[in-house]
Amino acid sequence: MIKRRLKSLLKPLLVIFVGWMFWLFITAEPAPDHAFYADKSFSSIGHRGGGGTLPENTLQAFVNSDKLGVDILEMDIRISKDHHIILFHDRTLSRTTDCDGLVSDYTLNQLRECRMRTVSATIESHPGEQAPGISAEIPTLEEVFERFPEKRMIIEIKGGESHLITGFCTMLQQHKKELQVLVGAFRQSTLDQFRQVCPKVATAATSREGFQFYLLSKLRLTGLLSPAYTSLIMPWRFTSEEKNKFFFMDIITPSFIRQARIKNLAVYVFTVNDPDEMKTLIDLGVDGIMTASPDVLLKVAR
Questions:
Q1: CA contacts within 13 A on the Cβ side of 58
Q2: Is residue 150 part of a domain?
Q3: What domain range includes position 70?
Q4: 206 and 188 in contact (C-beta within 8 Å)?
């Protein structure tokens, strides 16, 4: 009797589920075109300005990468205590400056007194390792926009403060950078809010959205998606010896790239500093590579 009731319940549920999947499939749309991707050729991307030999997220690093011929500058933004948008990656100051404490506890003038220093490109595997280099000042986002008015940029929002998100959008509009910038964020809520206030700006998938796309790509079900993003910025390796994998499966594969293309999504890979790895990814057909060694990437790409 119980089995019969379960069967009678499961049948309509199955019909509803299949109908829902079919509806998703026939209504799903690819990501819209965006001017940020007008150049369809491979893009070299200076990760944090290409800070392998110069202090990361500094004008010195950006100027150097620009002179080398990097296509896109990548950077991170935070907000100071007095609501200035600055370029900085970590929540705290100690790794890359001679100051300590939270970035958000310092005013812009106080942050100006902190000297940036060069940190090893292998910081993820050897935290705290430092390489000798020049000291530099923490820049504001406005200074970078003024220095590079025509340059394409990938900007990651660090932190979810509302005044950071709205102030960032206003600055993009004021400097006419809405079509030259790709915005990312780790937090879903942060990027959702940015998409609402700045809908003209291209955004990358969050870690949640990227992982969802990856899982669906393994099931060949990405056709069900209507992406709110226009690119996938995915990792390639955890270390220089071991491929970066989710559940022991490679992330960047020909199938993954092919399904991204169907959805009109660009595929960028971070952070690759080894020339052999660069060549492998370029041969796979990725749209761009982030690196702390832009001089090496440019040689490989050529």
A1: 25
A2: yes
A3: 31-301
A4: yes
